[in-house]
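User: I would dearly like some help making sense of a protein record. This is the protein in question:
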Amino acid sequence: MANTEKENLEKKLDDGKCSRRSRPYYPRRSKDKGLSSKTNIESLPDEMVSRILLELDAEDIYESAMLVCRRWYNITCTHNFKQEHLEHSSPGLVILSKSVSQAPSLVTISRRGGIVTIRNLKHPKRNLCSKYWANGLALENCYSRDNYFVANHVTNKRIALPRYSAPEDSNNHGSCIGYAPASKEYKVVLLQSPGLENPKVQICAILTLGADESWRYVDTRHVSLAARDLFTTTPLVVEGFVHFLFPSESNRLLSLNLESEIITETLIPSPEGGCVSCCLPTSKSLTLLMASPGNLSWDVWEMTAKKPGEWNKVGKIDLKARKSWMQKQLGCTLRDGLFTVCWLNDMEVLVLRAWMVFDKATLFYNVRTQEIQVVDLGYCSYVNLHKNSLVWFDHT
């Protein structure tokens, strides 16, 4: 029977009546027995391997991937790869637990599906005072107000900055680290006042990492007296700028351009039917959230680095209709509403908590899908946005 079917098939092939699809397939053997028909990662070009490695976290690359082989090491050690990985990564929220012995955690939102993930940071105990980061570089002031350090906790690189000699009676108002994208430089900013005798006089010192051997001063003489108190507020760092404002008490904004090192003074929008709840930075812009009574709805205004001083209303968030559901999930009443913590994924997710109830869960509200995830982060304090990265300020 089998021979008859084979003869009929061969006859059809001879007559041209058999289509290519119905012809039997006989795999050809390679003349070179050393060649394999299967494709493995070693046969992929460097560009494709690089795209695959970009999906890994910085810690996974540094501790595992670059140790696999010399080829992967050479790909991940280039400046271009480090920059691409930095731009490909989304910033997360650094949280410090109430317990000093517990390591800090990085809370992130996946680019697909919006799933909240929590990962312990590689963060030595001696560096727990780190409060400001720029592209994975941490600014530390561990021992005294005059000694500053910059570190990358992923790659274990750490360097001491030139000592800043402050006047004996001066008050240290804050310090931060920022990134100037045009010049690709990282800069540290210190803010101080000389003392009680001159409370309105402010000192703003700046240092370019890897270039300066001493601190330089930024001119603050043109800043109005009404705005000088803003230097004592917590700096808000976005790409290319350091901003100072206290929206509940002032309608002014001070912005330090990290490229030009010039401070400008502008006005912030006036609230309509509510109050300015808070100001939240993203990786590349500054936002104002103007709350309606009850703190369950906000008008969102944004100022980008491309148009400093120009504010645009970009949307509205209203959670009033979901108050009962949120109260049930949190296990507490929202008599005072919610306070906004930060943005994640460039204004895709707004992180919120209940006022004065710090041991309750945290809400992650997706602005696009309007979904709310409830995550128990425990009793913690929030520090800043942070990216795990491989960068270092010497561009290597």
In short: The two ends are 73 Å apart (CA to CA). The domain at 41-88 is CATH 1.20.1280 (Monooxygenase).
